[in-house]
Amino acid sequence: MSTDEIRAAVKQSIASIANLDVAEISDDASFKEELQLDSLTILEIAVDAEYKFQVKIPDDDLSNILTVGDTVRIIQQYLSAPATAAA
């Protein structure tokens, strides 16, 4: 999946979950300050991304997701990582 496809899917998820217009969501828009999303909404976006892209984002990385660009970067990181065996 290309970066543009991931970005478009992430923006669509944010728009749907937060009831925003996709055109209002820039790559560097801060979830909290610019988009005015609360922590629960940001978590819902992350969970939706995990489901949609079939990746598991560790809690440590969740705290680093502050923008659309951060979300895309982390999803790409886990999509390109080799699958690990279940413990």
Task: Describe the fold and architecture.
This protein is mainly α and 87 residues long. The chain has one domain (3-80): Orthogonal Bundle (Non-ribosomal Peptide Synthetase Peptidyl Carrier Protein, Chain A), CATH 1.10.1200. It is built from 4 helices and no strands. It has helices at 3-18, 39-53, 59-62, 68-80. Helix 1 (3-18) crosses helix 2. The longest helix has 16 residues, at 3-18.
Summarize the structure.
By secondary structure, the chain is an all-alpha fold. It has helices at 3-18, 39-53, 59-62, 68-80. The model has no long low-confidence stretch (mean pLDDT 90).
Name the descriptors.
87 residues, mainly alpha, Non-ribosomal Peptide Synthetase Peptidyl Carrier Protein, Chain A, globular
Helix/strand structural class: mainly alpha
Coarse shape: globular
Number of strands: 0
Helix content: 55-70%
H and E order: HHHH
Question: Could you tell me the mean pLDDT?
Answer: 90
How many domains is the backbone divided into?
1
CATH superfamily: ACP-like
Oligomer: single chain
Number of helices: 4
Q: What percent of residues are in strands?
A: under 5%
**Describe the biggest sheet?**
none
Explain the layout of strands and helices.
Layout: H1 3-18, H2 39-53, H3 59-62, H4 68-80
Helix pairs in contact: 1-2, 1-4
